[in-house]
Amino acid sequence: MSRLEKYTVLWAAVVVAMMFGAEATSRGRELKGILPLYVRMANTALQIWNSSGPGKEKWNYERGVLLYGIQEVWKRTQEPKYLQFVKNRTDAFVAPNGTIPTYVMSDYTLDNIRSGTVLLFLWKLTGEIKYKQAADLLREQLKSQPRTKEGGFWHKEVYPYQMWLDGLFMAEPFYAEYAVLFDEPNDFDDIALQFKLMEEHARDPKTGLLYHGYDESRQQAWANPETGTSASFWGRGVGWYFMALVDTLDFFPKDHPERAELIAILQRLAEAVAKVQDPQSGVWWEVLDQGGRKGNYLESSASCMFVYSYAKAVEKGYIRKSSYKKVYKTGYAGIQTQFVQDRPDGGVDLNSTVSVGGLGGNPYRNGTYEYYLSEAVVTNDAKGVGPFLLASLYLHN
Questions:
Q1: DSSP alpha helices (H): ranges in the chain?
Q2: For 44, which of 198, 204, 219, 347 could close a Cys bridge (C-beta 3.0–4.6 Å)?
Q3: Do 342 and 254 lie in a common domain?
């Protein structure tokens, strides 16, 4: 082949690539125009997690948060691929006899309870007994979960006498739904106790915000020796607790004497979180009360959690629409401006999600302002994508 022929072939290939690239870009613009954000984000999630393969996942709360969002998108759209994704991702961990081979009950970590809501969803939908059997295992864990002297669940066996905000979202919505489905009404006293203890010990009287953790023993280096609380108001931690309230109340009996108190807790929290919403961007900071401080940044997962929680709380009548509609409307607009990025294929990416946040452990996490800013910030993290789907479902009707 002559040099001219080679050049001609190469140029033809470039032209074809440009044509297909233009077609893909055009298709992406078309999808952007006609599909709601929850569909575009769900499609991106399926693309990412299908390509990663189930072998890279664990039975943990992250997959539970993601699948919760995807199942809610399926409820809205009835698109089979979303349900199939939820089922496939659950069947990868649940054996035909209802056991969960990668789950170790004796770890007593509340994080492992989160995926239980997906088990209950699939059991109600399909009637397959393995999902109920797997859910029964998680319920058994709660029966023997270590507790503080006052009755609060330890966050994990390896974190003795500690309650974290995270744990309320991991355990209580499942605990409450299970109680309804299998007629265990006395459990609601215990469920209410978990929320009340967390607020009693973690709420700051000045701001109304909740500290990330509480150590009953006051033995942890991160714990205030007088109050037992950690040092900072972590955005996603407060988001977990807020979501836990609005989701647990879905199942809480309307005639239960503690229901009014849970709604009152929600109302106090809603007022406090609204006060730290960033007035310029409409979203929330990684460390909530330190907006504008050097190193702090606007964080997507907490912002999505707050928008979802406010919108749902208004819809359910727990808080006044007149007081909070602007909060979640402005928040959702800010999420789109600050964190959502279009993809050429018509999907979207969710940026600026903190990868993790915790207390204690090894290396030791001391709960300071500097600690929360030291964790990596990532794109399309399950802990952000799941809440974004929930928020988008409420705001894109």
A1: 3-34, 37-52, 61-77, 80-91, 116-126, 129-144, 165-181, 187-202, 235-248, 259-275, 300-316, 321-338, 369-374, 382-395
A2: 347
A3: yes
Whole-number Å distance between alpha carbons of 233 and 107: 27
Q: Quick: pLDDT tens for 39-71.
A: 999 999 999 998 765 555 689 999 999 999 999
CATH number at residue 172: 1.50.10.10
Q: Are strands 353-354 and 377-378 parallel, antiparallel or unpaired?
A: antiparallel
CA torsion, ordered 258, 178, 317, 41, to nearest 10 deg: 140
Which residues are marked as active site?
A: 166
Question: 40: closest CA among 54, 30, 50, 26?
Answer: 30
The CA distances from residue 64 to 112, 195, 302, in Å, are 9, 21, 17
Rounded CA-CA distance 223/37 in Å is 41
**At which residue do the structure tokens 């939820």 appear?**
86
Cα–Cα dist 367/372, whole Å: 7
Bridge partners, residue 298, by sequence? 285
Q: Give, as one character, the DSSP assignment of residue 140.
A: H
- Structurally, the chain folds into a number of domains equal to 2
For the full predicted model, state whether its pTM sits above 0.85: yes
